[in-house]
Amino acid sequence: MQIGIEIEGTTITATLEDSETARDFASLLPLSLTLEDYASTEKISDLPRRLSTSGAPDGITPKVGDLAYYAPWGNLAIFHKNFRYSSGLVKLGTLDLGIELLRRPGPCKVTIRRLER
User: Fold this and answer.
1) What is the 3-state secondary structure (H, E, C) of the chain?
2) For residue range 21-77, what is the model confidence (pLDDT) as tens digits?
3) Domains of the chain: residue spans and CATH
């Protein structure tokens, strides 16, 4: 499933994984969030509720462009730098293009929607 992330008037796309956690995330869309910088590596935002992690691995090693769910905190994370293996991190999908928009410092308001085929 493809989603669109609107940032400052520009829409970038991402492709979601075929997993229970990604489908649960998609059920929340559309979402308007404010992404905040975290550890100079990712942009994060709280989600309106916790997502199912049924069948998810114990953790992942995130790469640039990965969308992930950090189960211990219940937040969305979009990685703009590679990071080390993190327990509790579940991959939701991958950005297709546009990571440079998320590398800008400071908070950014985004709207995330499903894209119609």
Assistant:
1) CEEEEEECCEEEEEEECCCHHHHHHHCCCCEEEEEEEECCCEEEEECCCCCCCCCCCCEECCCCCEEEEECCCCEEEEECCCCCCEECEEEEEEECCCHHHHCCCCCEEEEEEECCC
2) 999 999 999 999 999 999 999 999 999 999 999 999 999 999 999 999 999 999 999
3) 2-114 (2.40.100.20)
